């Protein structure tokens, strides 16, 4: 379910949320755990996400009380009752401020489950919209329906012990399709989309899935059946950023989170991001941050 980048499985994290214990590190959940849903009774999400952590799952976070400010990848959002944040797998999430009474309902799906070809194809059309506008302010009726749905999943989990792959897949499909109007309507009024915007959306989706192993502009151009020049020009025109900047932002945020929140060696981090050696990784990291990986880690101890 919830999955992140350090050293504790999700079932244990779930117990932490309930028992109010304190942990510093998070890890990927076992991939045979298809779905997890729960209530943040004690406000422990702030503890778990006080620093940026990569969410290696598809997470739906519904604020039911209080308010908070969060960072998701490169953007900041404010959540209040009725706010639903949809966090796609492999993005970085952090709670920077939170009122004492802030509480969440959450439901998460294992990455492998969502990325199976069948399920991914069914919901792919909504992924770019979610990436661009992950925060949805639900109306009272939608909030009530989603709250009821999550609580039903919690009860089902408590009764059966585990929700199988088929049930979890159906739950995800129902959730996305049920929220489809809210996802689409979350676009800014009057915002116009054309083919170039669609190219940006598709690029982001492909980068999210491949940045761990691919930094080459040509790779992404081939994936999108476009020339590198056309893709680069389009991305620059729409976003103001180069294609290399977009790819590197994912890589650097991943590296930063691992340096700050894991016990991985710098060499292990370099290899996890497909750098040939620690020297190449160090030069790459310093080019975008102004400091070496070691200095960055030491400055955040």
Question: How would you portray this structure in words?
Answer:
The chain is 50% helix and 17% strand. With 301 residues, the chain is of the alpha+beta class. A five-stranded antiparallel β-sheet has the order 1-8-3-6-9, sandwiched between helices. Strands 2-7-4-5 form a four-stranded antiparallel β-sheet. Strand 4 and strand 5 form a beta hairpin.
What is the overall shape?
globular
How much is the radius of gyration in Å?
A: 19 Å
What's the mean pLDDT score? 78
* Contiguous runs where pLDDT drops below 50 for at least 5 residues: 1-31, 187-192
Q: How are the strands of the biggest sheet laid out side by side?
A: 1-8-3-6-9
Derived structural class? alpha+beta
Q: What is the straight-line distance between the termini?
A: 28 Å
Q: Give the total of beta strands.
A: 9
SSE pattern, N- to C-terminal: HEHEEEEEEEHHHEHHHHHHHHHH
Summarize the structure.
Helices cover 50% and strands 17% of the residues. The protein has 15 helices and nine strands. The strands form two sheets. A five-stranded antiparallel β-sheet has the order 1-8-3-6-9, with helices on both faces.
